[in-house]
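Hey, resending since the last one bounced:
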Amino acid sequence: MDKGLGMALPAEGEEIEISKKNILNCLINSTGNVLLGGEGVEIRNLSKTVRQKLVENDKLVISVKAHKAASYRDYVAVIDQLKRANATRISIAESN
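The structure tokens again:
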């Protein structure tokens, strides 16, 4: 347990099984376009959309994956929008 937060973090290298219904994929392509759950969303509207999704499912994990040619600026903008939406479960997926 970590500082009484009521949660245990997995050991390094340990994988946790998460139900697919609790995963929302957020993909950033090479031109900065974002797909959230397979639907196009403008970065500036991302926090509002994610906030609505979190109301529907409070166990939601946002899995962020950026194309290797995506700009760092777009990546940071997406993470900022997720923070504004109060998303606390964010997974960073590796780019291929």
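Confidence is low (pLDDT under 50) at residues 1-7.

Sorry for the duplicate.
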